[in-house]
Every structure is written in C-alpha cells, then in structure tokens.
Amino acid sequence: MSFSWKRFLQIGKIIFPFVVLTIVFFQAKKELAGISFLEAIDTIKNIPTGGVFLAITLGAFAVSTMFFYDYVMLRYLKADIPVQKIFRISWIANTLNGFIGFGGLVGAGVRTMLYRPYIKENGKLIKSIAWMTTAFINGLAILSFLGLIGILDTRFILHEKPWLWPVLIFFALFVPIYIGFSKLKNRKATQTEEQEEEEKNPTVLYSLVSLVEWVSAGIVMYVILLLFGIEIEFQKFLGVYVIAALAGVVSLVPGGLGSFDLVFLTGLGQYGIDTGVLLPAMLLYRLVYYILPFCLGLIFAAFEMTGVAIKKFEDKPFIAPALETTGVIWTLQRDFLGKLGSWASAALTVFAGLMVILSTILPTSINRAHALHILAPKHLIQFSFSLSLTFGILLLILSRGIYYGTKRSYYMTIVSLIGAAIFNTLKGIDVEETFILLIVLAVLYMLRKRFVREKMEVSLSDIVKVFIFLLVTLYLYKNLGILFAGAKEAFKPDFVVRNITQVKRSALAAAFFVPTFLLIGSLIANRYRNEFPGQPANDKRLQNFLDEHGGNVLSHLGFLGDKQFFFSSDGKALILFSITGKRLIVLGDPIGDPSSYRTVLQEFLAEADRFGYICVFYQIESKWMSLYHDFGYNFFKLGEEAVVDLNTFTITGKKRAGMRATFNRFEREGYTFSIHEPPFSDELY
User: How many domains does the structure of the chain reveal?
Assistant: First the structure.
C-alpha cells in the first residue's frame, strides 16, 4: 500500500485540533487551579446595569461586519441577491465557522450551496469563495505586522510564549504575500486593464473588511474588560489579543477554544490582572461573540437550509464530479450541510432545554422573588421549579425527534415549550427566558410543515438510552445545584439561591414526571398513528399483477402471506417486504415493469421515511445496483444463489453418480415429486 501525503494531511487536519485541545486542557488546569468560584460570582455581580446588554449589542455588531465579505464578493460577481438574504447567509456561514470550524470549510460549503442558484458560472463562484475564505485572516495579519514593528505591545506575552514568534512573523508577512500573489494571478488571468481593475479590487476590500472584523472583535473584548472593572491600555490589550488570536488560528480549533483563552489569560496576567476576574469576562465574551450569534444563525439556518438546497447543489454538472474527488472532508460536510436545517431546529430545542434547566439552578432576583411570593403560594412556586426542570429535560430528549422531523416529537415539543414558558414565569418571573422560549416556539411553529414523519420506531435500546440520559442529567443537575447552594452567601443580598433540599426535591420530581410525560405522549400518538407503509398480502391481486406484468425468481414467495405489498402509483411495479422492528426488509428487487422501478423505489422510500422506518434490500440482482446506489445505498455480499436450468440439467455421467444413486433410492422406496404453482389449494396444505 503506497503512502499518500494527501491522505495523511487530511487525517492530520482532523486529529491536530483534538491533540491541541488535550494539551490546552491539562495546561489550563494548572493555570486556573487558583481561581475562586466565589470571587468570580462577586465579579459578575459588579457589572453595571445594562452592561450585559451593551456587550450583546457590540457582539452582534462585530459579527455583522463580516457581512461585507459576502457583499464585496457578490458585487464582484455581479449577482442580483437581496441584501437581507446576503446578510442571513453570511451570518449563518460566519457563525458556523466560529462555532464548528473545519478551517472555514463549513462556511464555504454553506455559501456555495446557497449562492449557487444566483450565479451562472459555478467555477467562478467556487474560486471566489475560496479566495475570500483565505482573506479572513488578512486583518489579523495586518495587526500582527503592527505587533512585529512595536506599534502594538507584544513583548511580555512573547517572552512568556516564545514559540509564538515564528507564528507572528509568518502572519506579519502574509498580507504582502497574499496581495503579491493576487496581482501575479491577475496579470496571468486578465487581458485588459478594465478586467484587471475588476479582479484586484476584492483583494484590497477583503483585507479592509478583515481588519475591521478583527478590530471590532477586539473592541468587544476590551469593553467587556472595562465592564468588569479591568483597566488596561488599549495598545497593550490589543497586543495580547492579537497573539492570543494567532494561537487560536494555528490550533485549528473552532473559535480558538482553549488555545486563545489560555494565551489571553497568560498575557494579561503579565500585566498583573487577576485571573479570577478575567475568567468570567472571557465567558461573557464567548457568550456574546460566539454562542448568541450562533443561536441566531440557527434560526436563520432553519429557514434557509433544506434538503432540496443540497440536492440542487449536487445536481449541478460542474460541481457534482468535483465532489467525488474531495474525499472525507466534503463527505462529512455534505452530510452535515444537507441536514443543517433539521440540525438547526434540534439545536434550538436543545438550547431552550438547557436554558430552562439552568434557570432552575441560577439565583433569582430578590425583588422578583418577593413580588412572586405576594402573587403565588410558596408550594406552587416550588412545584413550578420541578415542572420547569421536567420540561427542560424533555426538550433535550425530544430534540432527537425534532432532528428527524417526526410529528409526535413536534407536538410533544410544542407542549413542553408552552409548559416551560408558563412554569418558568411562575417560578421566578423570568420574563427574559420566557421571551426566548416563545421565540423558539414561534420558529418551530413556522417550520411545522417540515415535520412530515408520522413517527420513529422506539426500540428497547432507545428506552434504555433515555433513562441513562435522564439519570446523568439529574446527577449533574444535583451537583451543580449543590455548588450554587454552597456559594449562597456570595449572592446576598441581591439574589435568592435554592437550598440543597429544594434542588433534590426538584430532581426527584423530574425523575417521575419525565418518563410519565413521554409514556402518555407516546400512547396518545400511537393510538391515532399506528400505521405502516403498503397493504396486506392479497393472493388474487398478486396473481393478476404477475399475469399482466410478470415477475422474477422470488415473486412466488409473495403467496406465503407473510409479506406486505407496496404498489407504485402507476400500478406497474410492486415491492414485497416484511416489518422487523425499525426496519422494512425488502425481498429482492421490485417486480413488474422495469421502467417503473425507480418510481416505486422513490415512493416506497418516501413512505417508509414518513413512518420512521429504515429500508433494507435483501437478495438483489447486480444489474440493479446502480439504481440502489442512486438512492444512497451501500452493498455487501452475503452469499451466492445457484440457478439451475431444468431444460438442460441431467443426472447422467460420472459426476452425477452420487445424485443418481439417491434418485434411484427414492424411486425404489416409492417417493413421488411434482411441482405446484401458486395460488395453492387447501388440499395441498
């Protein structure tokens, strides 16, 4: 087996971020060992009123600046796309890049898919996206150059992390190399001065947009530090931020998670800033610059991304052949992007569930608590905590059904969101969380037509997994509740914290209510939707079908009565199958007119998907393998089938001596043999 550098680099690109995260994890344990949880809480309490809202606003603005990458590219391509749509696609691509990564490949895939209907030249679109993706680091490279020549203060951090010197030098030289290569490329590719002017403009504009993007992100972090009472010269701060950002970029970890944070903490620590104060500031930065924009991106993706989009994208004659050669990276992305709309809906459900669960642990404002005790009895408030926790866990469990688009999970999720919104308000007048829950509810309601699957079959292993998940979630909930209860004094006098007994009671109540709700919901759903594809066996109809359209070597097994029939809409093709758990086991290839095989397979798979079944085809003929491949099937050889031509078969000759002896013995003992053709008479049985 020959060694392939390309394959080696592909695997290395996937493994390297995990290695970096492992190293960062152990290093971070050492750096953060002295951080006090109580000190972090006290720091958060001192944020000025409206400070969090200011940070969220600045974070949204900083992410919005990346819209101009797409605007510049599409202006260069002369594409007529509404600005609002460009903004949504840009937001989806950029927030996915920041949260998931793959070196910008996820964002490139999203852009290629969603911009393709508006661009005539496929090749030009792909090249433009690739060139634009490369330009994302230009702004960081410009800031690196300023650090290299001393305008930004990077001395202390580089003294602490000398291994970053080569990285700084490389990035400082990146922009001149990028622009120089761009001019060389333009000189070779263009023929007129006008064309050359059109080609070179995006290069400079991309660099300017990138500079604005990186400076904006730095300003968000700087303002957050000021909100936490951390004062440092902007020049020194930006120097540390740039070096930390470089560490994050070279780590290939999404958002520079871990590597950026560790270098940033170390760098500002060189200026005497307390790490215990920096940690909550960095968590807020992650929240406003990555997590919240990503959640908004999920809402956009839920509406923009569909299975139809990826299908149209792959069907293009220029793109489809290229995808066959891009290997494992595109395979992963294609599967991800094709299901991104479903994934976004499920992720929103998970986000809502986690938010509700955390809201039952986090301290409640003392003013709201006093107002609530006037309006509602104490036992109702405590009961509301338990039900809020119940609905939060249910949202996490039901997110799987939301991903697969089942109606049962959709209706149960709607009920859970409404219940969570009601009891979330009753437990602490948490109007902010309730407002977010109503937004998620509205999004799922607007997407209701996507939930076309009647159900997903639930196996015993699925039930076991749900119970294990429930127990693990409640265990983590209890431990987190104990952690906050232990820090009760730090929240006084502005907040009220639940005690350990109350946390345990809520966990026990949820352990009862969650399975009960799932059981009742499933029973109601199964009562009205206990259906499956096809129709029961009918010997007379099968015989008429075979007389008119013919069959194959397995058709006679349809008369056994143990299989379901599925006819094509034109009545010219038939599939025989049996139901086994979550799977429909299809016997052989379709029967009937070969011109209707594709139709009956397409209709059968769609109907099976609607009822949540997985289709398995057994004993197919090799000549139809390409047809099954078009529907995404993989193949494996289970055995071989012998076919004997009865017209030419004989038992004469030396090779058949053993068989001849057996035949003669049967004749001597009076055995008889006959062939009966279906349908069979009662006398035969």
Answer: 3
